[in-house]
Structures are given as C-alpha cells and as structure tokens.
Amino acid sequence: MNKKNKIITLLKEYSLITFGIMLVVIGVYFFKFPNHFSIGGVTGLAIILSRLSGGSISSGTLVLIVNTILLIIGYLFLGRKFGNKTVYGSLLLSFSLQILEVLVPMKQPLTNQPFLELAFAVLLPAVGAAILFNIGGSTGGTDVIAMLLRKYTSLNIGNSLLVTDLALTLLTFPVFGIETGLFSILGLFMKSTLVDTVIENLNLNKYFTIICENPKPICDFIIHEMHRSATIADATGAFTESDRKIIFTVMNRHQAVYLKKFVKTKEPNAFVLITNTSEIVGRGFRE
Asked: Which of 54, 161, 216, 267 has the fewest C-beta atoms lying within 10 Å of its C-beta?
C-alpha cells in the first residue's frame, strides 16, 4: 500500500471512529446520564461517583478523569502496544461529554418515558461501539483494563469485565433506588447481546455453494460483473453418479441478489446453498 492509500485509509478509519464516538456520546449524555442508568463501564462508574460526591463533580468530568488515568496507566504498562485509535477515541469521548455539559446542560431526562430513554441509552452506544470495534478502535475505559488483564493475568477477560459491569450495575440499587436499578440491569442484558449483533450485521456477507454442470458462465459473471473471485471443485452426484462442479464464492448482500438471479436464469438446474457469514478473513474482505 503506497503512502497516498495509507493516508486515505487512515482518514476513513478516523472518520468512522469519530462517527462511532459521537453515537456513544449522544447516547450517554442525553439518555444515560440524566436517567442515571449505570450500565457498567467508565460512564457507569462516573454516574455512581457523581451521585456519591453529592453532584459536586459532574459525570462528564469524572469520565475525563478516569479515562485520563487509565490512558496513563496504559502507556506506562503497555507502551507502543497501546493503540493510537484507543487514545483518540478515549479523549474524544471524554472532551465531547465535557463540551456538552457546558453547551447543553441536562437537568432532567428528555422525556417521561424511561423505557424509551433506556432503549436509546443502550442502542446508540452499542452501534457506536460496534463501529469502533469493527475497525480496531475503542472508547478506552474498560478496554484498557482488558488489555492489562490480557498481558498480566490468565483471567478470562470477557468474564472479568462482565463481572465488573455487573457489580457497577448492582450498585445502582442502593445509590439510585430500585426502579433505576432494574432499568440498569435490563440495559446491561441488552448491551451484552446488542454489540455482537451489530458487528455481525456490519460484516454480514452471503456465502454461496453452487452445484452445477457448467460453471463457466457463472464464474464469468462473478469475475467480470461482480468483480469477485470463486473456487471450483469437482464433485459426483450421489444419486445420478454424474459429474458436477461446485462453485464456492462470497458476496456482499447487494451483490448476492444479482448472483442469485443470474444463476436462476442461466443455470436453472443448479443447486444453490446461501449462508450468512460475518467472519471472513482474506483478500477483498478483512485482512
């Protein structure tokens, strides 16, 4: 990859990181903070600490303080392995929350519908986090803790962070009351499944297994029209004992529609299996 392409790639990545962070910021500041939904992570910790301080320190300020401390620890113990994308995401999140506290003070929730607010408090940060994870970025915070756990302990990172998030969420009950605590528990369960679901959908592709007699027109269409490649394998029909060819290829969802129509038109006797897949590593997909 030449220098120009590297710069373009970096600009695209950091634009996506900025967009993802903004989704997280909107969800956290306008829906999570005013409703005191402590759904784990640094923002959940900041909500609890702000209440325990009697409101003398805002949640946004505490996010900045905690994230800065974690970034310093990360650089001290992880050095260059500590990614620039994580630093950028962490600082952008922290300062954005600080700016919003000055420009748009939130004294109460936007609506009187807590379940609606919970939905946005979970959905927007989940989509934002999925975009970040998908390109190797993050919002810092507990991701820094995960990096440290990975390097210095043999603990299961996923379970360790889940326990931490659960402990912070349970603290919501004595600090903010039963109703807010129950909403926070519900939000934690929603969050635990939503990020993976969004990531899978962002990367969703269609895996084709096409069994046919004449693979050439199909492969020509895949190569010249879809600008993809394919693999051909020999096969024998179990019932007819006649020779067959199997074509293996992967398309995005838009391309898959055209390939399916083409096969149906040109090779109506072909047997086509189409499977959803979101983990593809290789040229043309994820390197």
From this structure: 54
